[in-house]
Amino acid sequence: MKVAVIGTGYVGLVTGACFTEMGNHVVCIDIDEAKLDRLRNGEVPIFEPGLDTVVSAGIEAGLLRFSSDIADAIKDAEYIFIAVGTPPGEDGSADLQYVLAVAQSIGEHLQHYAVVIDKSTVPVGTADKVNEEIARQLAARGVDIDFDVVSNPEFLKEGAAVNDFMRPDRVIVGTNSDQARKKMTELYSPYLRSSDRLMFMGVRDAEMTKYAANAMLATKISFMNEVAGLCDELQVDVENVRRGIGSDSRIGYSFIYPGCGYGGSCFPKDVKALVHTAEQSGFEPTLLAAVEHRNNRQKQKLFSKISSYFSGDLKGKRIAVWGLAFKPGTDDMREAPSIVLINALIEAGAKVCAFDPVAKATAAGEFPQQWLADGQLQIVDFQYDVLKQADALVLVTEWKRFRQPDFEAMKELMNEAIIFDGRNQYDPDYLKSIDFKYSGIGRNNF
After folding, report:
1. Which of 230, 253, 321, 364 is the most buried (most CB within 10 A)?
2. Which one-letter DSSP state was computed for residue 322?
């Protein structure tokens, strides 16, 4: 197959590279020439396990190339994926200017039938707008070229995106066209040989499915975080509650781990966008609004616990932070709980020393450079360096290397042996037995 993927961000690059794994010819298009040069050399600008290997293999096999020339890239393409960003506006709505700009370019340069695929996460009705824009440009050119616009939302977990693409739980395609249905079946069949997980539905149904999926997962997280807050007040261990309800097959264990809030490029943005869509439609999204509110409150939870422990006086305190990325397996800092925590700590007069296995460079761009220059914020290269003379340690991101640290060595380095556990990773009873103070999310504290 000949595939064009417009946009070399997280979704576009994973999509384009993984299609080459089955022998497809892929051109990834972007306007950033510096980025394209890095990609041509096999340098992947994001951290995603296994992606660099797939990109390099595709380039070496002559199946993957990168271009800024959209006209050349789509001239032979049977499939044209739109995988550009849809950043949130101030009102929470998804900004479609980049999607529609791509649709305009496709209409200006399309030479033959192709399936145009919305891979970006977009609100219900976007495919109709893309279809209208392409048709408008074709009419302006005075040409009659057939095409189909389908919705094919991505369901890639950061940190496991390559595996998710190669072995998908499901592939959802929204289309009413028999021709597009046949073409999409041909494209995805190599990835679904062992199971029938290709699901067809209406275009608007597919667009809604993506938002509903992310909103449902965000709801489970926020529900459990709210339960954890109540457990704190009632001296209940939320971990026992989690295990108890998770054993119910109707509930399950996925996404019911309490913590310091969700982040990333999907959940916060998509919940906001769905809330906006509902309000624009005259529908009151009571539950979704509560999910967003709870998550915003949850990101303040760690600071509140730390401030309370130090009686509201954090001036001169040295706080160590383990984990900066919004989740393990990625260097993505978008909407990361660590940002809220570190901003609050430094504004309260504390000094912060932080470590993350892969997100150091990304994190450095998220905070005022003056903080780094003045030493109010240090981002170090080694895990235990953050603990030197620390008045407390905060676990924010549950990287595997943090699971079994050398607690005795930690005590020697710290001014006070206390851990604020934002992911309930540690056993409070064990830590207390070795003279650590402990505060988790909805757990036995101190």
Report:
1. 321
2. E
- Pairing mode, strands 2-6 and 351-355: unpaired
Sequential DSSP letters for 158-170: TTSHHHHHHS-S-
How many angstroms separate the CA atoms of 27 and 20, rounded? 10
Give the model confidence (pLDDT) of 315-328 as tens digits. Answer: 999 999 999 999 99
pLDDT digits (tens, 9 = 90+) for 409-444: 999 999 999 999 999 999 999 999 999 999 999 997
Question: Contact at 8 Å (CB) between 445 and 233?
Answer: no
What six digits make up the tokens of 183?
Answer: 């073409």
Per the listing, tokens 């600008």 go with: 45
Rounded to whole angstroms, the Cα distance separating 383 from 365 reads 20
Confidence at 446, pLDDT banded by 50, 70, 90: confident
Question: Are the C-beta atoms of residues 150 and 185 closer than 8 Å to each other?
Answer: no
Structure tokens at 67: 């271009």
Place of tokens 């496709």: 106
HSE at residue 64, side-chain half, CA atoms within 13 A, is 29
The catalytic residues are 266
Spatial separation of the C-alpha atoms in residues 332 and 350, rounded to whole Å:
25
Instruction: Fill in the DSSP letter of residue 33.
Output: H
Structure tokens at 380: 């170090």
